[in-house]
Amino acid sequence: MKNTPIARIALDVPLPGLFDYLAPGITAADIGCRVVVPFGRRTLAGVLVELASTSEHDLAALKQLSAVLPDMPALPPDILALCRFCARYYQHPLGPSIFTGLPVLLRRVSEFVEARPAGWQLTEAGREALPLQVSRRAKVQMALLALLQTQQCVAESELATLGTAARKALLGWAQQQWVERRLLDVAAPVLCESVKPALNAQQQAALTAIVGQLQGFNVWLLHGITGSGKTEVYLQSIAAALQQGRQVLVLVPEINLTPQLIQRFRQRFPGLPIVSLHSGLNDTERATHWLASQRGDVSIVLGTRLAVFTPMPRLGLIVVDEEHDGSFKQQDGLRYSARDVAIYRARQQQIPIILGSATPSLETYHHATSSRYRLLKLDQRANDAALPQVRCIDTRRAALVDGLAPQLLSALEQRLQRGEQSLVFINRRGYAPVLFCGDCGWAAACQRCSARMVVHLRERRLRCHHCGADEAIPIACPDCGNLDIKPLGQGTQRLETALAERFPDARILRIDRDSTRRKDAWDEIYRKVHNGEADILVGTQMLAKGHDFPDLSLVCVLNADSGLYSSDYRASERLFSMLVQVAGRAGRGQLAGEVLIQTQFPEHPLYQSVMRHDFDGYAQALLQERRDAGFPPFIYQALLRAEAPMLAQAEQFLRRAAQLAFDLAAPVSIFDPVAASLQRLAGKERAQLLVQHHHRGVLQAFLGHWLDALRALNERNVRWSLDVDPTEV
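^ thats the sequence. predicted structure below, dont judge the formating
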């Protein structure tokens, strides 16, 4: 037993440190592999992180490692180092940090058996018949045919991104013996780039700067107005990295952006294996794509925030699109920022990273204007289209009809007559935010959260959008029995109904989380919009970023003022960004764009800056406010959150935590415990304690000692977590 190596294993349990096991026959080549170990009465999967010759525990008490699983190549040292950084910086146990990046099927004890990938190819009969059979108006079938014509055999995972319509067409073609299915061989990728559009002077300057520095670490902020052609700069930068035999990681904030982008990437690079990684994939698809990336069989990985942990042995470039987006910040478990982790990974690998946005986060903008990052500006639209004209409608002086001003209704009518598309934007789904009794003042509230229940009239349900509570709409007021209870305010469903009554011949398409729950729903919506099968889009922030609808000429924004009332100091930054992003959907093609914002405060500096398309001026004003107030990026913060059955319990824990900080003679600023902005969530009362310091290293050093003391408190009725660099305070 003396010569038996000691395996130090990372487990997905909420405990700090690694766990020692006897590991006869295990060598350094097994570091990074998945293993099976006994843990108490359970058997768990783990990852071998280190081998040691000694243990601080009694060797006779150590259990033996059960097995090494062969289903996953060993995690490379750079990924283990990346996970160590995340565990250290975000003050999270190493085991859960490592397992955060693994697909679900590779977190289990059972061995994952990877299915042999299959694909589809044209038959000789199909090559002759299909070009004559497919109508040019059938955009999905045309895209499907183009894929089959440009590749000898197209993987099923690639075809899946075209949605259910493509799958139905494919099965129909198979019955006609125009296509056939076969198992795929892993072939060497062939870089065969399709025709590239010409770049304007600004795009070319940005591309030249990036491509000239592909061999080392640089952070480029590609700050381009909406429609300025940032994606084309990405694509040509990616092509340069691919020509060097490198892999590329592209991060996007939302799942619904992935199909549009991956289709564009595959059209540009038809000979290369490209995979997506996001929560819309099933567990098998995700594990298969992840393993292919780790083996180096994939040239481009396009995914949401979790994809930042994907092993890629030849990684040469990282792109973070819409870098400002809050979706890049994980709000539970390992509370990491995918953008910041991507920057660390680029520095670790000594490769460039491109951060792209029309409205960069103030932190990124500050780094770029202070020369920490390199700034590339695109302030003209790529196709010479003009920026949309933005006007505010003063709702204090307008007679609203179903919440819509006459000027706005008139503008919608004009677009319908001209056959152009419009977008009516309201960042609130459901029918109405409140069900209200006018007699006694009762309003439907969630019993588990400090929030109102949202009316979903078509389903006759009340739903909490925070905890998911669901109940039937009452017939009468439960307090006074009044039968005349009414929905107040507007959501996407109510707006859709009002527009349908006002414009009965219009084809109205609602796009929110309720209408896109089905797996292929977004693909179908995207097809309808691009095929001209919708006249008015009614949507939430899902439509505010990244989408290119060439026939859309009018954007109408409702209920924007709610963003001015928030206690969160980031609220105005988010509102400005959202307005600029949604306004950028208008006039991206040949049609002139117009944006109408309904507001009670048309003179507000925020709206005035949006009307002038003046991001730089507004960002500099906000940065000065942050500097004066001592807010990020001029200070570094961490937020200790606590939840308990009673608010007093959570606040008592936070007071004890503050006392521990004082006992440590902490050099940080410690604020008083306060209730969270949403005090009750899912039946738990929540409070928080903010700590900050102007030096990141000092704050990090304090947090490590503080957490050790906090774990010793062993509070049974309180669940707590630490959020480093919080985005919601």
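The mean pLDDT is 90.
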